[in-house]
Amino acid sequence: MLSSKLLIKYGGNAMINQQLQIQIAQTLKQLSDTGHEIVLVHGGGPFINRALEKAQINSEFIQGQRQTSPEAFKEIQKTLIGEVNANLVTTFSQYGVKAIGLSGLDNQTVTVKQKKLQLSLSDGTNKEVDLGRVGEITTINPELISTLSQNKFIPVMASIGADQNGLGYNINADDFAGEIAAAIKADYYISLTDVEGLYRHYPDPHSIVRTISLQELPQLYGSVIQGGMIPKIQSCENALKKGVKNAVILNGTKPEQLLHYFETEEKIGTTIKKQS
Ligand SMILES: Nc1ncnc2c1ncn2[C@@H]1O[C@H](COP(=O)(O)OP(=O)(O)O)[C@@H](O)[C@H]1O
Ligand SMILES: CC(=O)N[C@@H](CCC(=O)OP(=O)(O)O)C(=O)O
Q: The CATH number of the domain where 40 resides is what?
């Protein structure tokens, strides 16, 4: 494969042990050494759950988005930037990756407004849900991350951003990754999670959907696509519509899939295509 621009989303569920993180570090090093420009966005759901539990703060997910009170936001920012990002950058650097830890706050890379969710109710009406301090991205300034990645550094980004008044927001890492992929005009948007891809009958891995087009997705939300898979698929959709060439979901608990993907293309994971 020729050298490409990659946006890799590393989900919290695929970083649950140090060995997995080391294998991802080794893969990033290989991809970078072969000339790929890489930006990595990480999640941290399980780490946030633990921190909120310890702080005795309740949190609920609605359509894969964590309702975030101001108190929860403080813990989430500490966890994503101070713990998950710092630990990933440390491990990656130990394995020769030129990792630079950032969030959307640095150089105002990511600006947000408060995200509103529209829920469709069974009686056919819609209800707006207040998610609290959850951000919807309004603008991205890719200057900093592009400068770094073009110079062979790998920006490692936590999904925190601020609004125009400087108020910080929690951003779903899939939403964040899809928008960054579009902003840097990535050739590949690769989402690493803890399942093989999108299953038609979750949790049966034999029901994996190998390829699916944008046109086929809308009817699957709420039935086939649930929970954490909602923002993941939506972010692939968003990235493709905004010009990203390829979007794929792979199993990050099998880090070897990342290199394998570039050798075999569509034979592993779920590829979301623009056209059927
Ligand atoms: N149709 C589906 N196929 C596969 N996974 C699904 C599906 N629907 C919901 N999921 C859930 O989505 C999860 C992945 O999203 P998430 O937990 O947010 O992971 P990550 O931390 O990688 O972002 C899977 O572990 C699974 O529980
Ligand atoms: C608003 C929202 O849902 N924010 C996410 C941010 C982290 C994340 O998305 O992590 P994963 O990629 O591991 O799921 C959260 O609070 O869990």
A: 3.40.1160.10
Atom 1 of ligand 2, nearest CA residue: 172
Express each pLDDT in 212-226 by its tens digit. Answer: 999 999 999 989 999
CB of 13 shorter than 6 A to ligand 1: yes
Q: Into how many domains does the chain fold?
A: 1
* Phi, psi (deg, nearest 5) at residue 68: -125, 110
Which ligand 1 atom minimizes the distance to the CA of 252?
22
pLDDT class for 43, splitting at 50, 70, 90? Answer: very high
| Whether the complex's predicted ipTM surpasses the cut of 0.95 | yes
Rounded to an integer, the average pLDDT of 99-116 is 98
- Look up the domain containing 59 and give its range: 5-273
Which of helix, strand or coil describes residue 127?
A: strand
Answer whether 180's CB lies under 8 Å from 142's CB. Answer: yes
Q: Which residue has the CA at smallest separation from atom 8 of ligand 1?
A: 226
Give the closest residue to 57 by CA, choosing from 78, 81, 73.
73
Share of the chain above pLDDT 70, in %: 99
Say how far apart CA 109 and CA 184 lie, in whole Å: 12
| Best residue for ligand 2 mutational test, from 16, 48, 174 (most atoms within 8 Å of Cβ) | 48
Cα of 104 from ligand 2 centre, angstroms: 14
